[in-house]
Amino acid sequence: xxxxxxxxxxxxxxxxxxxxxxxxxxxxxxxxxxxxxxxxxxxxxxxxxxxxxxxxxxxxxxxxxxxxxxxxxxxxxxxxxxxxxxxxxxxxxxxxxxxxxxxxxxxxxxxxxxxxxxxxxxxxxxxxxxxxxxxxxxxxxxxxxxxxxxxxxxxxxxxxxxxxxxxxxxxxxxxxxxxxxxxxxxxxxxxxxxxxxxxxxxxxxxxxxxxxxxxxxxxxxxxxxxxxxxxxxxxxxxxxxxxxxxxxxxxxxxxxxxxxxxxxxxxxxxxxxxxxxxxxxxxxxxxxxxxxxxxxxxxxxxxxxxxxxxxxxxxxxxxxxxxxxxxxxxxxxxxxxxxxxxxxxxxxxxxxxxxxxxxxxxxxxxxxxxxxxxxxxxxxxxxxxxxxxxxxxxxxxxxxxxxxxxxxxxxxxxxxxxxxxxxxxxxxxxxxxxxxxxxxxxx
Length: 443
Prior knowledge:
Elements: E1 10-12, E2 16-17, E3 24-25, E4 29-31, H1 36-48, E5 53-55, E6 71-73, E7 81-85, E8 90-94, H2 99-108, E9 111-112, H3 124-129, E10 146-152, E11 158-162, H4 167-173, E12 182-189, E13 191-192, E14 195-204, H5 205-210, H6 212-218, E15 221-226, E16 232-241, H7 250-274, H8 279-286, E17 293-297, H9 299-303, E18 311-319, H10 323-336, E19 345-350, E20 365-373, H11 379-391, E21 395-396, H12 406-412, H13 416-426, H14 435-441
Parallel strand pairs: 4-6, 5-6
Antiparallel strand pairs: 1-4, 2-3, 7-8, 8-12, 9-13, 10-11, 10-12, 14-16, 14-17, 15-16, 15-19, 18-20, 18-21, 19-20
Helix pairs in contact: 10-11, 12-14
């Protein structure tokens, strides 16, 4: 196969790596289209050459969802806001736009998403296609805030989807795993900019689990981190506020968010990787390092934080009613084992949504995320955690590490067949397929 230049923005493929460094791919060529027309032409050219084609965002997925040995589409020129509709309360944005750029642009317009995840480095299409979420009692994932989308199909057709236009594709493509086509634009529901007050404070594992139902019910957005090898958690409650703004001070932000959460955390993880026996002692110190604080700011400054320490991650959604039991089993497993885990376990929630393969599809959900510092053996920990999660009808995050396959998902998702039916219609030749999709969706 030729790796020569083939049209605008095309070049010979180089090795691609994801953010965590655990996935690599060597495409035949890369294409960076500057318009929807160029993207369409690239898909048609791939079909002529008999090549698979995949779009990749910033590589923040830990799975090989975007990996390909065919044509790799890089959407970084397809960025920016197309339009703002203040009457409908929507914004339409190009698919390659990073969430950070979207949040800044919306804030300048006096607008905001209702909810978002805890980082904003990803592209809007990459984040939504894998089901990226934050935490919320009433407000759901980023994908659940999509009101319309546009995608290029395997035949090079531009398909527009919403609840009224191609509704069965819309139901599937909001969390489409890149299996149905390449998204070119997304229309999000937005609302006037508002303020959130965040209250962060340490709390014991026993108290958090005993009071979880109340903490969940009393707060619009509740999440917590449990530090393995300790009985300690850090909790965060975000609720709407009338103001005034009272942002984190520059000093507090530097100490808590940069020095402790990134700089010092990097150092202690490096030490823990070199000398695992030190991890339980480090965990006890780390779990008490962050002090209680309260601050009020616009949403993206409260929901998101910088994450510079690299890691690998597994996250499962379990029925919200099963969270406490699942988490207690996870703690018991770690306590009984000789595992050494230097990263806290993150717990969040989401209400049920109506997206075919959303991890919260049809049920109120709670998320448990386990992490290991990059370069540290993670398999035993993740395998043991996954055994617990799957025993509670867990659904793995599509962009995070797991070992599940199509047979598992067919039982975990009542609408799994609906998704694969849409895929069979839109991409019968699997132009957008790869090894990961073959495993999780079948042939």
